[in-house]
Design brief:
The complex is a heterodimer of chains A (318) and B (365). Helix content of chain A is 34%, strand content 29%. Chain A has 318 residues and is α/β, with parallel strands linked by helices. In chain B, strands 2-1-3-4 form a four-stranded mixed β-sheet, sandwiched between helices. The A-B interface holds A 59-60, 62-66, 83-85, 87-88, 90-92, 94, 96, 98-103, 107, 111-112, 114-117, 143, 159, 163 and B 2, 5-6, 9, 12-13, 16-17, 199-201, 203-211, 364-365. The complex binds adenosine-5'-diphosphate and magnesium ion.
Chain lengths: 318, 365
């Protein structure tokens, strides 16, 4: 592959730095010319729908997949030329939670530790500690194949941390979990903040909002926007939404509302009117005048959801 | 020693999965049993054998009339000259004939007097029927050793032998079937690694700083343990079905062991090339089945056309079949089979190196 360096300067103090990083599968461009910087100790979330290129990006950074263009540095090491050294510095929890099914959590952890060059004694101690932290001590010696999805995911994340890596990649860590298990994992991942550099991917808006220091919105292999949750929301700060819950919303009244305001969304007995510089009283009065009986009405804060919608032009369906 | 850690993991994955383990051992075992019942056991055929007594001593006479004539699987007729015996052999009236040379009685007498004898028998047999000839060979070999009370073979010089008069077809069939059992290690080996690839577990392992050779040896080592267990079971089962091991059992084991390594190595090559079990499985059988036929696992290679034999001899398993037969049936020593063992070992080494190279190539995504 020809040496490819983008115009960007390499900054060795960054945990992850990509240079026009891209990967195609045949004619499909899965990741297109990605340029992101992740500082050490930062929790960076790649937020995007299925198929937007999140896993492909992680796989390239973990040296599992060769980029078809560009390159990246992980802890100052080139993923193309210094893959073996990069691997010694990273931990990954893949999107599909794959464990050694007939091994216990302890054995799974010890294996990962040993493969990451940790000596046996230390590996045993670290594994026992992590099993406890992850709340798996009661089942520490059971084979993992009978574990619940949440337990497996916790173990998978523990496996990404066992070697005390500098950079941790968590690919959709809460995918498919029930809200309670998700919440528990958020708390755990939140606790890691500041200690480790974490690149997390998700297609859950709240997850990125709750956990990430910075969010990169990825869509069709491209970064559409990048910044803190606050910064992203600022893009839509001048955009407001008035939400009205009402009875007696007839077709005629809805048609009238839709005819008067450019952005109207109806959801059962709820009408949302969005736009710039909305006049709350004018809107509620108008809705009232159509014969609808207003139960409640309020201004909604701009959300990451709206920011996302504005940035990508589509809704993120979880 | 990362590959040992990996090997331990793989071994645990195998033995903690009772179903997989059962299948692993039961499948080849089933074949073995099937063949055992099919060819071994009760129905022992009777072969017509001619005898020409050139020695004409009392002892040679007794050997012919009291020993050979009493062997249940032989129907002995005596001849006056070699030509008429050869004629009968050509016509298929007899399957083999034994030429007892002058001095036979004297050598046997030496043995009785605890001097070391040099007993020679000349056996002429029909080349086209290797299975039968080997049995006749073994039968006569056993008979004369029993008669002369010697524990050394008669026409092949090896030491350490048990004397057994009863010989079954298992002697010929079992060594081949064992190789077939070892060929089944090709899909077994590939499956072990490809399962992890398909599940995505391999990706996880690949994000650790582990070298291709460590992966290949980590998977292979667990399989080597399986292979050793299989070989022991096969040999025991063969013996249970009446396989008579004339030669050194450890030498036979060595031949099977290196053949097993070849299977594992080929399995690793397939695993390195495949992404899923659906890819690996047919490819493995496509390799193992023709190899089984080419290598003379079921039918003697000698009955196949020349070019098929040449083709078969490119691969290690035909060498393993013939070497193991030579050891088990004829008591061949290390010197006699060393070139085969070297050939098979080189093949295994080549397969592993190819496996590692392919694995390295594929792991770069
Ligand atoms: N091995 C592959 N071969 C072909 N196409 C792939 C492969 N891996 C991913 N893709 C495609 O690349 C795109 C991005 O996939 P992925 O990175 O998995 O997205 P995400 O993780 O954001 O859901 C998708 O269109 C997917 O179908
Ligand atoms: Mg993904």
């Amino acid at each position: 592959m020809p040496e490819h360096r983008s115009s960007r300067e390499a900054d060795k103090s960054l945990a992850v730095q990509t240079f026009d990083l891209g990967r195609s599968f045949g004619s499909l461009i899965a990741v297109d010319c990605l340029n992101i910087d992740i500082k050490q100790g930062e929790l960076f979330a790649l937020l995007g729908p299925n198929g937007s290129g999140k896993t492909t990006t992680i796989n390239m950074l973990c040296c599992l997949l060769k980029p078809t263009r560009g390159t990246a540095n992980v802890m100052g090491l080139d993923i193309n030329r210094e893959a073996h050294s990069v691997k010694a510095l990273i931990g990954i929890s893949p999107q599909d939670t794959t464990l050694s099914e007939h091994l216990s959590p302890l054995e799974n952890l010890e294996l990962m530790a040993r493969l990451n060059n940790m000596e046996a004694k230390k590996a045993r101690k670290y594994s026992a500690d992590l099993v406890e932290v992850m709340g798996l001590q009661e089942r520490a010696k059971d084979q993992v194949r009978r574990f619940s999805g949440g337990m497996k995911r916790r173990l998978s994340i523990a496996m990404s941390l066992i070697s005390d890596p500098a950079v941790v990649f968590l690919d959709e860590p809460t995918l498919g979990l029930d809200p309670q298990a998700r919440r528990a994992l958020w708390d755990y991942i939140g606790n890691l903040k500041g200690e480790k550099t974490i690149l997390l991917t998700t297609h859950y808006m709240e997850e990125a909002d709750y956990l990430a220091d910075r969010i990169g919105i990825i869509d069709a292999g491209k970064i559409a926007a990048l910044g803190t949750a606050m910064e992203l929301k600022a893009e839509v700060v001048d955009r407001q939404t008035v939400v009205i819950n009402a009875w007696n919303l007839t077709v005629a009244s809805l048609d009238a509302i839709k005819g008067r305001y450019p952005e109207v969304k109806v959801n059962g007995g709820q009408v949302s009117v969005a736009g710039k510089d909305l006049d709350f009283k004018e809107i509620t009065d108008f809705v009232h005048s159509t014969g609808a009986i207003i139960r409640s009405a309020y201004f909604k804060e701009p959300s990451l959801e709206e920011a996302y919608l504005k940035i990508t032009g589509k809704e993120l369906v979880a | 020693m990362k590959f040992l850690t990996l090997a331990a993991r793989n071994f645990k994955e195998i033995y903690r999965d009772p179903l997989a383990l059962a299948f692993l051992l039961a499948f080849p075992l089933l074949f073995m049993l099937l063949f055992g019942f099919a060819v071994g056991g009760t129905s022992s055929p009777v072969y017509n054998v001619g005898v020409l007594d050139r020695d004409e001593t009392e002892l040679s006479g007794r050997f012919v009339n009291e020993v050979l004539a009493e062997v249940p699987s032989l129907n002995v007729s005596t001849f006056e000259d070699a030509e008429s015996a050869a004629e009968k052999l050509k016509n298929g009236n007899i399957r083999a004939f034994v030429n007892i040379p002058e001095g036979f009685g004297g050598e046997v007498l030496k043995s009785y007097q605890n001097q070391s004898p040099d007993i020679v028998l000349n056996l002429t047999y029909d080349e086209s029927d290797v299975s039968v000839s080997s049995q006749i060979y073994s039968t006569i070999d056993a008979a004369v050793r029993e008669f002369a009370e010697v524990h050394i073979p008669v026409t092949i010089n090896t030491s350490h032998l048990s004397v057994e008069a009863e010989v079954t077809q298992m002697d010929f069939v079992a060594p081949g079937i064992i190789i077939f059992g070892l060929l089944i290690l090709v899909p077994t080996s590939a499956r072990l690694m490809v399962k992890d690839k398909e599940a995505g577990y391999m990706s996880r392992l690949l994000t650790t700083p582990t070298r291709p050779w460590e992966f290949i040896s980590g998977y292979s080592l667990a399989l080597v343990v399986i292979a050793i267990v299989q070989i022991i079971i096969f040999i025991m089962l063969g013996v249970a079905f009446g396989m008579n091991i004339v030669g050194n059992i450890f030498l036979a084991f060595l031949v099977y062991f290196v053949a097993g390594l070849c299977s594992i190595g080929i399995g690793m090559v397939v695993a390195a090339l495949s992404k899923s079990e659906n890819q690996a499985e047919p490819l493995c059988w496509l390799i193992a089945m023709p190899l089984a036929v080419l290598s003379g696992v079921w039918f003697p290679q000698e009955i196949m056309p020349d070019f098929i034999q040449v083709l078969g001899d490119i691969f290690p398993f035909s060498h393993a079949v013939s070497a193991s037969r030579m050891i088990i049936i004829r008591g061949a020593d290390f010197g006699a089979v060393s070139s085969s063992i070297i050939f098979i070992t080189a093949w295994a080494a080549g397969a592993f190196m190819l496996g590692i190279a392919l694995f390295r190539h594929k792991m770069k995504g």
